[in-house]
Each structure stands twice: as structure tokens, then as C-alpha cells.
Structure to design on (124 residues):
């Protein structure tokens, strides 16, 4: 098995691609400010899933990186909400992303709970 098989990875990767493209809808002066922060936090969601999986032989390490991923997901939602408040004309596009990240946050949280209860280091 690979991290590529995880639903949370697949969803986070697709959302990263959508989010990256969406940031280029922002005014040019915002590309290196809020746009950059949003791209980095969206990247962190998926990257922490991958890095955690690489450490999955150690249950606590794996869970720690899932926690980081969940925190980055919350950060991403916050950046999106700031964009929606600052640029109401872009709100519809970003609201879709916010809803998808809300769903992903629930999935990461559920997977984190599953890993806490079921992860067996000896099987890895």
C-alpha cells in the first residue's frame, strides 16, 4: 500500500491543484501575499499526509503528521475566508473550495481517529 491509495491524499492533492489555480484569480498585488500563503497552506495539507505516511512505522509520528495536515487544512480554510471577505466578487469560486476543505478536514479527523485506535506498528 502507498499514501497514494489514501482517500485523504487523493482529495488533498486534487484540492491543492484547484487552489493553486484559483489563487491566480486574485489581483496581481495579492499573488505574493495572501495568494502565496494560501498556496503554501494547501500544499502543506497534502505534504504532511505524505511525510507522515513515510514515518508510519511509528504510530505516534504518523498521527503527529496527520495532526499537522489537519491544522494546515484549518489554516487553508482561514485564508480562503479572508479572500472571500476581501474580494466578494471572487467569493463564489472560493466558497466551493472552502466547502471542499471543510469536508476534507472531517475526513482527516476521522482517519486520525481510526489511526489512533487501529494502527498496529508491527504490521508495517
Amino acid at each position: 500500500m502507498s499514501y497514494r491509495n489514501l482517500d485523504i491524499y487523493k482529495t488533498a492533492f486534487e484540492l491543492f491543484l484547484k487552489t493553486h489555480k484559483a489563487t491566480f484569480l486574485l489581483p496581481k498585488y495579492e499573488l505574493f501575499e495572501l495568494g502565496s500563503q494560501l498556496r503554501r497552506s494547501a500544499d502543506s495539507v497534502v505534504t504532511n499526509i505524505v511525510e507522515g505516511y513515510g514515518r508510519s512505522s511509528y504510530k505516534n509520528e504518523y498521527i503527529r503528521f496527520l495532526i499537522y495536515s489537519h491544522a494546515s487544512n484549518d489554516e487553508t480554510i482561514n485564508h480562503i475566508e479572508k479572500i472571500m471577505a476581501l474580494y466578494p466578487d471572487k467569493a463564489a469560486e472560493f466558497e466551493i473550495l472552502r466547502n471542499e476543505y471543510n469536508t476534507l478536514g472531517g475526513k482527516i479527523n476521522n482517519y486520525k481517529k481510526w489511526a489512533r485506535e487501529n494502527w498496529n506498528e508491527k504490521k508495517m
The radius of gyration is 15 Å.
